[in-house]
Design goal:
The protein is α+β, with helices and mostly antiparallel strands. Helices cover about 30% and strands about 40% of the residues. It contains ten helices and 16 strands.
């Protein structure tokens, strides 16, 4: 089989780049004919995947962390439509921890990822899209395969995306550091949530959404004060299922409410999330 491979050498603290020769050789045993693109800047992966699909490539593989995988996924869509509905997407996560891997029952690490590709089957899966605003107020749209969220989790993702501490102390340390910093700066966050048969103004710490079975699984974690935020992090929140969710901050919410998709900062509220059932051929 032939494949177009998007590769991020900076993922996993640069270890992916150091292991590239081994990764390439292992991939060639599964896909004897390959084309490669090495990312050098944010958002390149989506543009290159889109161009590759238009050039006739039918098998796209993203090698890197959750951010690289999400960027590559977004290349499958343009202006709300699939670029090539028959193309297949797969990913090799090169880090040590991945929400995407957990969702699909995969082990993280490139060795485990490539080994799994040998017997992986193609199946149609749901993806979801969020339409929100950039921090400068420009409308943006992002697709996600694993999960999206807003509130405290979005603030943490935004901080992680611009910080360099993970390069020196590792992702786990950086996540704990930015989580603590976000909690210390937490202010009241109230949003209006509108879904199928549901319309409420709620104090939230985070709202998580994940596409599954043609709908969005939505989990609302309560918390207006810092004490309630800490409590909501230790307990399950309210859950609902809907094909669409609209969220907007109330006037008494201080500051923007950050949105993230698959762990990467996407923008701020207001936002609309909607599921696209069976919109992607995923080799998993």
């Amino acid at each position: 089989m032939t494949a177009f491979v998007i590769f991020n050498p900076n993922s996993a603290g640069g270890q992916t780049g150091q292991d590239w020769r081994e990764i390439e050789e292992a991939l060639e045993r599964v896909f004897p004919l390959m084309s490669f693109f090495v990312t050098a800047a944010p958002a390149q992966a989506a543009h290159m995947v889109r161009d590759a699909l238009r050039d006739g490539h039918m098998e796209i593989i993203a090698v890197g962390g959750d951010g690289t995988i999400n960027e590559a996924l977004n290349g499958f869509f343009d202006r709300g439509a699939s670029v090539c509905p028959d193309a297949t997407f797969s990913f090799v996560h090169s880090g040590h921890d991945s929400a995407l891997c957990r969702k699909f029952g995969l082990l993280p690490g490139w060795r485990a990822g490539i080994a799994h590709l040998r017997q992986a089957q193609v199946r149609k899966v749901d993806v979801a899209r969020v339409s929100c605003l950039s921090e400068s107020g420009v409308p943006v749209s992002r697709y996600f395969l694993g999960a999206a969220s807003f509130g405290l989790s979005g603030t943490i993702a935004r901080s992680l995306g611009t910080a360099r501490i993970a390069r020196f102390f590792g992702h786990r340390f950086a996540l704990g550091w930015h989580r603590m910093a976000a909690l210390l700066q937490w202010r009241t966050c109230r949003v209006r949530l509108i879904a199928s048969g549901y319309d409420e103004i709620a104090g939230i710490s985070s709202v998580k959404l994940s596409p599954f079975g043609g709908l969005l699984d939505v989990e609302v974690s309560a918390g207006e004060t810092r004490r309630r935020v800490l409590k909501s992090m230790k307990s399950a929140g309210r859950r609902l299922r809907s094909a669409r969710l609209t969220a907007a901050p109330t006037l008494d919410t201080s500051g923007p409410v950050a949105v993230e998709t698959d762990g990467e900062s996407a923008g701020v509220l207001p936002a609309t999330f909607e599921v696209h059932a069976g919109a992607l051929n995923l080799r998993v």
